[in-house]
């Protein structure tokens, strides 16, 4: 069986190499640093703003690698506005083009439409992609521990600090989650989906791995969440949930967002 994650990593490395032929690192970093005047650490602050309730990170994505096209004629800006009106504290935007149908244009459209923090969700293999995301308006970027060596992961987390954005370091595999926890990131995610084989989802991963997170880290539960009952079954240590497919497939995403955002966490925070 082919390793889907390794396939996408190879594709994104090639994309970065091609992009550098058009705009070099120095110029792209200059574009990114123009936005340094924006408030730093906005994504982290939004997730911490109400520790008594579960934070919803609502995702804009066109395609699921496992399920195919999720919604026809997606208007990223309109979708993001619906999410925010319903109580989402942050928006995740897919920017990977081949398998999730995303783009930096989608990120720019959402940035222009809403004021809440935005997570650029991609398979990031190089700091160049982080410069691109910051220049497009991202407040945070996703890093996949399984796809990065320790030195790469530490370097990219450090680059986030330089750019004034947050790193969300996710993992599915136990060993990789341990690396995420020690990467220096303040936000760690447990992805129920196995990106090596995207059809595999194990929503028990959060219950299995959450105890390894440091007490001062935010824990995000990702993938496989389709109902309020799914969220209620999460451990109390889960500070936030990232939901994409269920919201993109819904005729109206607002009821699910509102119901989840109203859940009181079962711990004193």
CATH class: Alpha Beta
CATH domain topology:
TIM Barrel
Unreliable runs = none
User: Widest sheet: strand order?
Assistant: 1-4-5-6-7-8-9-10
What structural class is derived from the secondary structure elements? alpha/beta
Number of domains: 1
CATH architecture: Alpha-Beta Barrel
Helix content: 40-55%
- The span between the termini is 44 Å
Q: CATH superfamily, called what? A: Aldolase class I
- The average pLDDT value, as a whole number, equals 93
Q: Sheet bearing the most strands, described?
A: 8 strands, parallel, barrel
Shape: globular
Number of separate strands: 10
What can you see in these coordinates?
This protein has 269 residues and is of the alpha/beta class. The chain has a single domain, classed as TIM Barrel (Alpha-Beta Barrel), CATH 3.20.20.70. It is 41% helix and 16% strand. The longest helix is centred in the first third of the chain and has 19 residues, at 4-22.
Question: How do the strands and helices of this protein lay out in sequence?
Answer:
Elements: H1 4-22, H2 25-33, H3 42-48, E1 55-60, E2 63-64, E3 68-69, H4 76-86, E4 90-94, H5 104-113, E5 118-121, H6 127-136, E6 140-144, H7 150-163, E7 166-171, H8 174-181, E8 187-191, H9 205-209, E9 218-222, H10 228-232, E10 240-243, H11 245-249, H12 254-261
Parallel strand pairs: 1-4, 1-10, 4-5, 5-6, 6-7, 7-8, 8-9, 9-10
Antiparallel strand pairs: 2-3
Helix pairs in contact: 2-6, 4-5, 4-12, 6-7
């Amino acid at each position: 069986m082919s390793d889907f994650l390794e396939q996408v990593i190879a594709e994104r490395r090639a994309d970065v190499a091609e992009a550098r032929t058009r705009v070099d690192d120095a110029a792209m970093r200059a574009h990114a640093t123009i936005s340094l005047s924006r408030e730093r650490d906005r994504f982290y602050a939004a997730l911490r703003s109400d520790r008594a309730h579960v934070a919803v990170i609502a995702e804009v994505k066109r395609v699921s690698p496992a399920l195919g096209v999720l919604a026809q004629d997606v208007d990223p800006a309109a979708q993001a506005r619906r999410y925010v009106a319903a109580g989402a504290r942050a928006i995740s935007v897919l920017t990977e083009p081949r398998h999730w149908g995303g783009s930096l244009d989608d990120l720019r459209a959402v940035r222009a439409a809403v004021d809440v923090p935005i997570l650029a969700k991609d398979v990031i293999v190089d700091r160049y992609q982080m410069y691109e995301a910051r220049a497009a308006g991202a407040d945070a970027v996703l890093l996949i521990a399984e796809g990065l060596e320790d030195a790469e992961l530490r370097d990219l987390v450090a680059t986030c600090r330089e750019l004034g954005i947050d790193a969300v370091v996710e993992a599915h595999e136990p060993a990789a989650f341990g690396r995420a926890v020690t990467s220096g990131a303040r936000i760690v995610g447990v992805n129920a989906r196995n990106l090596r084989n995207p059809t595999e989802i194990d929503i028990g991963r959060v219950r299995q791995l959450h105890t390894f997170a440091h007490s001062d880290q935010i824990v995000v539960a990702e993938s496989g969440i389709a109902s309020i009952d799914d969220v209620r079954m999460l451990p109390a240590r889960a500070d936030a949930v990232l939901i994409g497919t269920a919201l993109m497939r819904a005729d109206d995403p607002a009821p699910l967002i509102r119901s989840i955002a109203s859940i009181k966490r079962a711990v004193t925070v």
